[in-house]
Amino acid sequence: MKAKTTNTALLAVAVLVTPAVVFSIYDIFRVLEEASQKHETIILHSGTHYLLLGTVLWVLVVLQQMALKGREATIKKWGGKVLIGWFLSCLLLANVIPMALSSHLKEKGYHKCVVLDVTANHRRGREYIYALPQCAELNK
Q: How many domains does the chain have?
């Protein structure tokens, strides 16, 4: 495959993954906004933040662009380190963000509830429902 064709394909995949990354970031702001507006229940999906891993493709696109412009020495020296660092940072964020949001909700007075009607065994991560002030009404 030619370098230009590979670059175009990689760029297309990176563009396609962008809505998933935007959704992950939107979900953070949605939870924070619902907490500030004192909604009675807030649903927190811990697995959606792993969609941030799609940004690794953006780093690959940048590295590919640098390679096409003749900066192979820079890529050989820093490319692998940047890519691995970005990947590990995304993994760290995907684990820390749900914990931080959960802590924020607890500080705002929300309680983590077990709702018997909700089953989330079919997806990655866990689905938590936080209720203000109590969980009793959710299981009726």
A: 1
